[in-house]
Amino acid sequence: MDKTAHFPLNQIPAQSLSLRLARSSIPMNHRPEWRIDKLNPVHDLVIPLTGHGFYRIGEEEFTLEPGEAMLIRAYERFHGWHGGAPGLYTGVAQHFTLDLFGRGDVIAQMRLRRKVRLSRWDTLRPLAQLYRETTPRGGTSLPQHHQFMVILLSFLEDAFIDWNNGDAEPESQDQLSLHIMFVASRLSTDPLGAGVEEALASVPYNEVYFRRAFRERIGMTPQKFRELKRMEFAISRLDMGLSVKEVAAELGYSDPYFFSRMFKRHIGEPPSRYRAKGTARMTHEEMG
Fold it and tell me: Do 187 and 280 fall within a single domain?
């Protein structure tokens, strides 16, 4: 199973997540005498680049070194000190919040490993270095938001264990947002199966209320969202060389013309034209 394809946050619309950087990133340049004992009102992601540090959070004690990243949750007291090796302990730390649909702290809803070895470190290392070196003074910037979102999502994908949804009140906005994300994720990952009624069957809310809340947060009804995801799946199949008729049949459309109308409604052009453009592009690349 492809971990990236099935990580829940990868299956929801980009506008569903709202990242706020509480301050500019903190370039770490810690000498051997460095010590810290602190509590932050927001989450803190720590990414070392050289050297290593020791940390204690509650009863946990561990080291942190390049290639790893650590999350310190909001209002967690932590202690940190230099790892003892010659030279500086460097890296970058960022204070942040991440909201789901602007209404709930998504980090608080997750069970996460405290620290992880980043599986994409070869790609992330130069990004983390750039992020550290281009920290703006006195504020945050749009490039900084984009860069940190890439780093944060990579960490969350490696650290994610499960959702903390067992003890919360069903009517809380955090829980409602979480269930909307569950449904959106299921409709995204199973375009050939899970119909809307099936996806909504286990939702602990009045159906009319939930459908309205889904539309408010996602921007379309569950049915329209499912149709869009099915047409995006159709694009991937057309790109693999299947005919329009074959893709229509795979999606369960007995009438290819009806499938073509649905495809055009969501994608903006008929599948035959989309496929022809793809074929022409591939031919041009092969000739070039």
Answer: no
